[in-house]
């Protein structure tokens, strides 16, 4: 018979008690902290999975932060574009009022103020950097030099002293681009010369006409004809700026959709930036390559096709047709009919 010493018995019982106490402390810590472990060692074989998930989380959070920054910049760009568009619309209205009154006593002063407003819009900053300078973010994209010997010249007079309106712009042709996720890159920048050349040409022509035949006092028939033509040009410039605002809004919608799950599905079905006022989708064709996706509770169809704003459209992006817009609903119904 093997004898067991009293000391050995006590030692074995004490070790069991200490082990139980250690396990209880670990369990209590998990309950209190709501964490399985405080480091990767505590996850054992699952540590590789946890490490991969943490890396993915960091990468996704980086894209989310980038998209929020891009969205803030696009909102500032929208304010700047709105200011330029308002200046063009107000200039047209000022000319219309002068034609209706038959006098131009305050016309040039009003137009000069509106020109300065448009210039301020093109020179707007975001976080200390000029928005519309392209790659040149430390210099104003619109800069009018002083006229030698005329220190008090108006801004429109400085513009008229240049060889042409393009000499007023100092931006380069590098548009700012942003990665919204691993697969989506978007041009979110706009250039000052593309936005303001047409508008600046109108202000310059009016100033040159004023220097030849002063636009002041009672209006003549020739001046009325000239100003009527400029009204149409101002209206066209305002419409062009509104189109640029729509493109900027499309970029903002896309950047918001990439970090807002509620809007991401709709973004996948619309053309990439610059957005069009009425999105169009390719007509379903039997030549598409169809595949059945293992969605639950029931499978749905995906279609892959070429020469399209997006390479793959998955019908499961719209689980309910009632949640889609009318144009989207009609297109999705056609897609479902074309599915094999």
Briefly characterize the structure.
The protein is mainly alpha-helical.
Features:
f41 fragment of flagellin, N-terminal domain; 340 residues; mainly alpha; single chain; 2 domains; 8 helices
Structural summary, described in words:
By secondary structure, the protein is mainly alpha-helical. It folds into 2 domains: 60-262, Up-down Bundle (f41 fragment of flagellin, N-terminal domain); 279-338, no CATH class. The protein is 55% helix and 7% strand. It has 8 helices and 7 strands; from the N terminus they run αααββαββαααβββα. The chain has helices spanning 6-33, 47-101, 107-122, 155-160, 192-212, 221-259, 261-268, 326-338, and strands at 125-126, 129-130, 177-179, 185-187, 289-293, 300-304, 312-314. The chain has a 3-stranded antiparallel beta sheet, with no helix packed on it. The protein has a two-stranded antiparallel ribbon with strand order 1-2. α5 runs antiparallel to α6 (221-259). The longest helix is centred in the N-terminal third of the chain and has 55 residues, at 47-101. Residues 261-281 and 288-324 have low confidence and may be disordered.
